[in-house]
Amino acid sequence: MKLADSNENMPDSNRILHHLSDFPALNQKINGHQLVYLDSAASSQPPSCVIDAIAEYERNDHANVHRGVHTLSHRATEVYENSRDKVVSFINAKSRNEIVFTRGTTESINLIAQSFSRSSLKKGDKIIITHLEHHSNIVPWQLVCEQTGAKLEIAAIDETGEVNSQALINMLDDKVKLLAISHVSNALGTINPIEKWISVARDRHIPTLIDGAQAVPHMSVDVQELDCDFYAFSGHKMLGPTGIGILYGKEEHLDKMPPWQGGGDMILEVRFSGTTYNELPYKFEAGTPNISGAVGLGAAISYLQDIGMDRIKTHEKEILAYMTAELKKIDGLRLIGTAKKKASVQSFLLDDIHPHDIGTILDNQGIAIRTGHHCAMPVMEYFNISGTARASLGLYNNKTDIDRLIESIGIAKKIFN
Amino acid sequence: MESMSTSGDELRDLYRELILDHARNPRHFGRLENPSHQAEGINPLCGDKLKIYLDIDSKNTITDACFEGSGCAISVASASLLVETIINFNTGQVAKYFSAIIASLTNTEKQAGIDLGKLKALEGVKEFPTRVKCATLAWHTLNAAIKKQHRTVTTE
To answer: What values do phi and psi take at A133, rounded to 5?
Structure first.
C-alpha cells in the first residue's frame, strides 16, 4: 500500500482515487462496459492487500489457533490475535478482552440476544429498536421476546427516514432493558444521532447495542467516546472478507454473560461433572474460528487506517451529495430517504418501473446496484412500496461512476418510456 | 467475464413490446368469485407476489382464470400471458406447456411439438439468469393451484 502523499495539497477526493488500482475486481468489463460498482452497502470490494494477506496466510501459516506447540500453529495464532489488536485500535476499545470474533453483524446481535438478553429478560421487560432496522436487528429480538415474554417496541420514523428522536427518548422508561439501534440505516443511509440516545440511555441505566455494519466503513468510530455497551459490525462491508465480524462489548457485561455456544477453545477444563469456561474473549469463540477471515479483516483495517477514516468520510460525502443532486434532476425519479445526515446510500424509485427492471437494465450497462427490500421490509412497508433501487458508495467511487449511473437510468426511462 | 454484446440488444429482446404491453395492461387481472382452484406464489428475493385463481370443470378443463399481484415487468407480463394462454386448456395440456416453457426459459432442450406462440416473447430472459425466476413464478403458481397445494409457492 502506498499513499498518494506526493502532493500534500491534493484534494481528498483525488488522493483517494489514486487508490482505485488497488481494487482488482473493479477493473473489469460487465456486458461490454467498464464495471461501476454501487453496491458496497451489500458488500464492498476487497483491495489487493486483503486478498494477498489471506493467500499468504493460507500458503504459509495455515494451522489451528491456540492449540499445538508447532510453529505453524504459533504463527496462525499470532496473525489471528494480531488482527484482534488491530480491531482494538480501529474502534478504540479499552482492551482486547472486549473484541469477540463472530461470523458477522448478524451473529454478533444474535449472541447478545441469546446470551446477554435471554439470561436476564423477564415478562414485561422491553427492548427498543427503531423502524429503520435491518432484519438482523429485528428478528433476534423477536425470538428472544418469544422466549422470555419481553416486548419489542419500535421507535417511529418520518417521511425523510429520520427517527423521531424525542419519541424514542420518551420510550426509554424503567421497563426497557436494551436499546438496540443502527448507527446508519442500510436501506436509507440515515445517520442516527446515537450519541444523544446512548447518553440518555446511560442516564437511565439502559444498556445500548449499536448495529454499526453500515457506519464502520464510512466514518471513524470510537466506542469509548460513544460509551455504548455493545457495537457490532461485519468485515465484508469494510473491504474485508465475508464470514468474519466483530462484537465489541464492555468487559463488565461480557464477563457476566453466559457462554452462547459450547465447544473447543471456549473452555478451561471439561469434566463430565462440570466445565469451566475460558477467559474473555475466548469464552464466546467456540470451535475453530475463521482465521483467514480475521487475517483479511486485519489487512482491511490497516488499509482503511492508512488512508484515514476522516479522509474517506469527506470523499464519500462529496460523492453522495453529487449523486443525490444528479438523481434529483431526473424527471419522474423519487428519492427514498432524505434525512439531513446521511452516509453512502441513496434509495430511489423511477416512474412506475419496478426496481428489478431498473437493476437489470443498469447491470446490462455495467452498473451494479441493489434492488429490492434490502432486508428492511418494515422500512418498505412504511413507505408503502415493495422495494427500491439503491446505489451505495465505497471509498473507490468517483463522480464518473455517478455520471454513468445517471446515463443508464436514462436508458431505463427510454425502454419503459 | 466479459459478455459478447456491447449494445442493448439483449435488453430490447427482454423488454419486447409485447412484454411491456402486458406489464402495463395485464389481461385477466383480478379475482374469481368462487374459484375451484387457487394458489399464491412469492419471490422472496424480489417481493413479487402473485395469486392465481382457476375454475376447472369435471373434465379437467380450465374454464376461467384470473391473477392478481404485483411485481416486475417480467413477472406481471408472464402471468398475464399465462392466463391468456391457458383458458380453455385442459390440465394435461397445461402440464405439457409447463415443461415446454420452463425448458425454453432455462435454455434446456426444446420440447418437440409445442408451439408456444405468444409465450415465446418471454424467451429474452434466457440471457438474464437472475430474472428467470421472475418469468417462471406464475407457472409454478399455476402448477400449485392445479395440484391444490396449499403451501405458498416460492422461487427459492
So the answer is: -65, 150
